[in-house]
Amino acid sequence: MVILSPSILASDFTILGEQMKQVEAGGNDYFHFDVMDGMFVPNISFGIPVLVSVRKNTKKILDVHLMVEAPERYIDKFIDAGADIITVHQEACKPLRETVEHIHERGKKAGIAIKPGTQIDVLDEFFGLADMFLVMTVEPGFGGQKYMDICTEKIKMLRTRLNDRGFDTDIQVDGGITRDNVEIPISAGANVIVMGSSIFKGSITDNTKYFSELFKKYN
């Protein structure tokens, strides 16, 4: 199943609630929530109070991506605020296995993310433990970047390795995904697609409908 996870980082925060309803009218599956601390990535976004507000506004799955140093410090707070899936970076989380296990102990799904320059080998030991692997297709920190073609091969390799070991773990992709290239990562094996500008620029409902209909042919 191919899942659509619009990133609210690309929304207009003065009318966020209204825009979320427009997304839902188009048929999304998740909402993607990017948290940046200005240390792990060179930008700052939003945090727990915003997630609390977002949770009040939707029953959709909230897919929280922590681009922060030592994310293990905040797991419980984000779960209490309403996260359904929490993804932490392999490069930023030292007690990675323990953090994933703790997320599971709290009854939530856990993802592990890697930057474009990180080799997928670092994920092997987490096959069967993580619920999702996020392959960043741009350098994390800013929206509106161009999809990095070198990441397509990483997605293929990761899907092949998972299949060879009997796992159907979700592979999420995030960064630079548009109408023109969305089927490239899907064909490579990704099945959770994060999009920001491609959803929130122009007619939000029409954009969401376009992708939700497109994804049906893969389901």
Word description of this protein:
- The chain is of the alpha/beta class and 219 residues long.
- It has one domain (3-216): Aldolase class I (TIM Barrel, Alpha-Beta Barrel), CATH 3.20.20.70.
- Helices cover 35% and strands 20% of the residues.
- Strands 1-8-7-6-5-4-3-2 form an 8-stranded parallel sheet.
- Helix 1 runs parallel beside helix 8.
- The chain is globular.
- The model has no long low-confidence stretch (mean pLDDT 96).
Uncertain residue segments: none
Q: What coarse outline follows from CA principal-axis ratios? A: globular
Major sheet description: 8 strands, parallel
Task: Report mean pLDDT, rounded to a whole number.
Answer: 96
Strand order of the largest sheet: 1-8-7-6-5-4-3-2
The number of strands is 8
Name of the CATH first level: Alpha Beta
Order of helices and strands: EHEHEHEHEEHEHEHH
- In DSSP terms (H or I, runs of 4 or more residues), the helix count works out at 8
Query: Helices and strands: which structural class?
Result: alpha/beta
Query: How many structural domains?
Result: 1
Which features would summarize this protein structure in a list?
single chain; 219 residues; alpha/beta; TIM Barrel; 8-stranded parallel β-sheet; 8 helices; 35% helix; 20% strand; globular
